[in-house]
Amino acid sequence: xxxxRRGFLSTCAAGAAVPYFMWAGRTLADETKAKNDRIALGLxxxxxxxxxxxxxxxxxxxxxxxxxxxxxxASGFNAKHAGGRAAVFDDxxxxxxxxxxxxxxxxxxxxxxxxxxxxxxxxGKDVYCEKPLTxxxxxxxxxRKVQKQTGRVVQVGTQQRSTFDLFVKAMALVAEGxxxxxxxxxxxxxAAPASPSIPVVAVPKSLDWDRWQGPVPxxxxxxxxxxxxxxxxxxxxxxxxxxxxHYEFRWWYEYSGGxxxxxxxxHVDIATWALLLxxxxxxxxxxxxxxxxxxxxxxxxxxxxxxxxTATEFLYTVDFPGGTQMVIRHDTDNGVLIEGEKGRIFVxxxxxxxxxxxxxxxxxxxxxxxxxxYKNLPMQDNERxxxxxxxxxxxxxxxxxxxxxxxxxxMLNICHLAGISARLGRSLKxxxxxxxxxxxxxxxxxxxRPYRKGxxxxx
Length: 459
Ligand SMILES: NC(=O)c1ccc[n+]([C@@H]2O[C@H](COP(=O)([O-])OP(=O)(O)OC[C@H]3O[C@@H](n4cnc5c(N)ncnc54)[C@H](O)[C@@H]3O)[C@@H](O)[C@H]2O)c1
Prior knowledge:
The protein has helices at 28-31, 48-57, 71-81, 93-96, 113-122, 137-150, 164-175, 209-213, 259-262, 264-277, 355-358, 369-373, 383-397, 405-424, 441-445, and strands spanning 39-44, 61-67, 87-89, 103-106, 126-129, 154-156, 182-188, 223-224, 229-230, 236-237, 242-243, 286-292, 297-298, 301-302, 313-319, 325-329, 335-340, 344-347, 352-353, 428-431, 436-437. By secondary structure, it is an alpha/beta fold. The protein is globular, with a radius of gyration of 22 Å. The two termini are 21 Å apart.
């Protein structure tokens, strides 16, 4: 970011134990009231989550440029969030080359994340990229390399890491040893939908379908609006359109990893964070389990190409050294269960429960327990808004944010490996030190993916 803006939040003591939602008595909003101190943001991908994210960051940022391959989405976003004043492009590279863009937000589908994040870093921009950061394990190696080389600040959109009253508090219990040595963690992330065969239809005028696909092999555009269904109160509701494009791309391995990288990126993240805070940094060593897919697979690739293809139901087991096990499943209450030798806790977006939580009444956590888990970074607001505050503060101050690319990939590798195991229908052994699958050439080939000509990633 611009040196002239580095003075921003200089009053904040990053190393001090700070109370929730307050940075040495001043907030990020106090610091960004003046026009000159506001942060200029360039947006790449103006769909569903970009709306929520910009809502969370709006007190501190001005959107100066928007890129989307769907012109209607970009112009609608501009009108709604930037008063029509942002420059609008179909090519994200126009956003990256602008000198007036301080930070970039990548909110495209997953298959575009690595290329845009790498190019943003090389263009000298700090980036907030939505989860999951990559589509493959090797893309994680590349992003980590370029992040080290450029020193840019990259925050991943796993906002549960900035949810202080639930997930961060749960992590503080783990870090303070209230559960003892962890033996078992479970990430319950819900089932994923199947679809009927989806017809090939004409591409909408506003959408550049070829560029939407970008690095991925070209496929037909598919779309159908299924009829309304009744909810539990008998009210009719139109489902989201069934498609291989907007929002629903997450149910296609071509563009995403299904539930594993959609919700797994949140709850496997918390389960992995717990192990790391418990001193269990090695592994995993093996991944297996069962998964039900809505299509058949050959050599790890879906055979039928006309419908959703990611796993709908699954039970994956992940082994770590010392007998610790992680389970990732669809079929029980959404949330993370952490079991240690001294007790167990359950944490979700609505609840933190278990005996170690009740025991806090008589034996509270030390004052600095939450701050320590939060890497002693300032804490302002909660959840998505807090995560943006963390990113913007770290970008201003050149610090590593709470959802850094290194710890994110430690967990995302697990999701990707579970996906490879599911697609091949066999268990895998993993050498975490060299990030290679052991003794399985076909599975190892799936650590990377080919890029369509013209969409290679150059570094
Ligand atoms: N953190 C969270 O809680 C959370 C929640 C939902 C989604 N997400 C993540 O956000 C990302 C986007 O999901 P969504 O539901 O908003 O999808 P979406 O389909 O609604 O939006 C994606 C937008 O990106 C645009 N796009 C595609 N390729 C582009 C390119 N090359 N350049 C510019 N724009 C391009 C699309 O046209 C679309 O408007 C996904 O990676 C998803 O996993 C995160």
